[in-house]
Amino acid sequence: MKTQYKKINKVVIAGGGTAGWMAAAAFAKLIGKNLEIVLVESDDIPTVGVGEATIPTLHIFHQLLGISEQEFMAATNATFKLGISFENWRDVKKDYLHSFGFLGQGCWAAGFQHFWLKGRERGIASDIGDYVPEHLGAREGKFAVLAGQDLNHAYHLDAGLYAKFLRKIAEKNHAKRVEGKIDKVNLNDKSGFIDSLTLASGQVVEGDLFIDCTGFKGLLIEEALHTGYDDWSHVLPCDSAIAVQTKTVGRPVPYTRAIAHDAGWQWRIPLQNRTGNGFVFCSKYMSDDEAKKTLLANIEGERLNEPRVIKFKTGQRRKHWVKNCVAMGLSSGFIEPLESTGIHLFQRAIVRLLLMFPSQGIKQSDIDEYNVQTKEEAEHIRDFIILHYNLTERKDTPFWRHCSSMEVPESLKHRMTLFKDSGQVFKKADELFGETSWIQVMMGQGLMPEQYHPIVDMMGDDELRDFLNNIKSGVKRKVQNWPDSNDFIKHYCPSS
Ligand code: FAD
Fold it and tell me: What residue ranges do the domains of the chain occupy?
């Protein structure tokens, strides 16, 4: 394919929230030597100020950037996270945990769930979480980083402090920050590519490649380039959130809480010093005032700020890369934070662009490939989130009746049917959520397979009992030796 555009010598990042500073730190540190990197942000336009629960893939990003876990945790008041507790989702007072661990080993033909299903049928298997160290650790509030034990964990972090932490890395690696409000995006008359940004001060910031991290509005990708938006609210109807911070009461738990209410769900994200609380809800079924009351009635501890309403439309930009502009962060789309996938998607976008970095000039084939990969990745996550809403036994409010009866994408329907029919789940290459995640959530939401794989019958009941008990006692022994997660943090990051 012919080169469509000039060499990339200068990258301009518009916006300095989590997405902007993640991009600036990564580009500056990893390919910044031969590039000029400029980040423009306005002190007068606040960041969205939420986004504090992560998933284990953040390790990959930190490893790439050479970030020390202790240093990062101390700088962001972070705590460890081993999973998400889904409360009242299957039905009122029916809870389960989606942990980050992997289910105990099965065999070449059948995953562990098949052995567990037969064990359950025979009355010799206990809660599926008993076979996963991360699950038991979360339930017991324990954590450890031990040589030779690969504990799959993520963090709860302070988003504002995280952006500051990344800014230091970016600036140390010679990224430049320009403060000012972007007033105009200047397009080239002939090509339609972005030539420059004009700031309110009159300053003009020119660039070769522009990364739009300006938040929901998508100043470059949408307001200037009119990319269009795929609206997913027919399958993910929540469109509002209220967020408020409180002082942490008691000892922070090593998991995020996602507590379902009448027309949405509440998050509780405990940091070392404070707790992030929020309520994601559907304005068709609940007013802002009612949502505020629901949230305030369900928080603990002294309030540290006034509740703030955030409106959103779930979906994705039709294209994430258009001409010489790539959207990252909220400007590229939004999937509600039920499985804490926002920061993960930013990081994937950054790594994808780095992998395909068009230093010799932008080609349409790069753009097309980038957009296909990004779309598929987001649709996979969308399906996983819909699963939580659709696969519910709740019928107690109009919202839950709507969710349980709504039409869902064929791709998701197929996964649910396959699991119900045969207990099988398959992860395709590049999908974020693996077999263990689908199994934990599908069973947690009440979907039990109708059969297990016949290879399990090669084991007699006694053999199966020993097999299950060995895994369970191994998990118990392991977790027994872990300290309380908060004691561990104090020891691990003494400056926290
Ligand atoms: P923003 O924080 O909005 O930053 C936009 C930046 O652009 C700011 O620096 C602003 O100054 C700048 N800007 C805008 N306009 C201009 C202009 N004209 N001139 C100059 N600068 C400009 N993700 C997770 O991974 N985990 C979570 O738990 C999670 N929870 C979330 C909860 C809610 C309710 C929402 C809405 C999102 C959540 N996310 C979560 C998603 C995401 O991680 C956060 O929203 C994240 O903070 C978004 O960052 P951003 O950089 O895209 O946007």
Answer: 10-52+158-230+314-362, 240-311
